[in-house]
Amino acid sequence: MSQRRPFIGGNWKMNTDHASAVELAEQVIAGLQDHADSGDVVLCPPYPYLDLVGRTILSSPVALGAQDVSPEASGAFTGEVSASMLLDVGARWTLVGHSERRHGLGESDALVGRKLARALQSGLKVVLCCGETQEERASGKTDEVNRRQLEIALEGLEPAALDAMVIAYEPVWAIGTGLTPSLEDAEAAHLAIRSVLGSLYDDQFAASVRIVYGGSMKPTNVAQFISSPEIDGGLIGGASLKAEDFLAICREILA
Ligand code: PEP
Question: Looking at the chain, which runs of residues are DSSP E strands?
């Protein structure tokens, strides 16, 4: 495990309803009472349940996050949700550039960069996701893809603005599939991402940024991933929907 403060995000995606969102949030905060300040734990419910989940976790150390944010400040953008609205309902974090949005909904690297800049300017903390597809990995392009996604997203952003950013390395082929990279491959990708940060900024800044792994992280494989000093926690999808699994992952990372 690294020296950096651990980060764990639960990405509920388009799951739960009014009752199950509250129940899941209640179970998570009850199960984390003994780990109050050992790291950042963030729950990212669907937009309609943000306020509700925010109220449920209000006096707990668990923070509220959104799954996406508009690159625009306000105005005629039907269906979009702004950073200030997210802050207004209690969110402190947002995901940006999740692969289901990049690949499923066609978000470009440039759009991801605009969302990142807007969220940070507005005072939201951000989990910036990056990662390669199966095809890109097979053709040896993992590091090139991560470099491109990061360079475009970070363009024009000063290190001071990036204190509030965590990077999630999420190989697209590992998300929701049960497949995972070997520890060596995950570690190599994290090191390559850190070296991109070093080349864009400097080594001191690069060493300070938290980089977490995401993609089929489960209670059964979390220990292996966080045995690496390069892996600062996890972004969890499927396993965050079962309190027992999410709590087992949190306890391992926050131990
Ligand atoms: C994710 O959605 O970011 C994710 C990592 O999903 P899963 O854990 O289900 O692979």
Answer: 7-11, 40-44, 63-66, 93-96, 125-130, 165-169, 210-214, 233-236
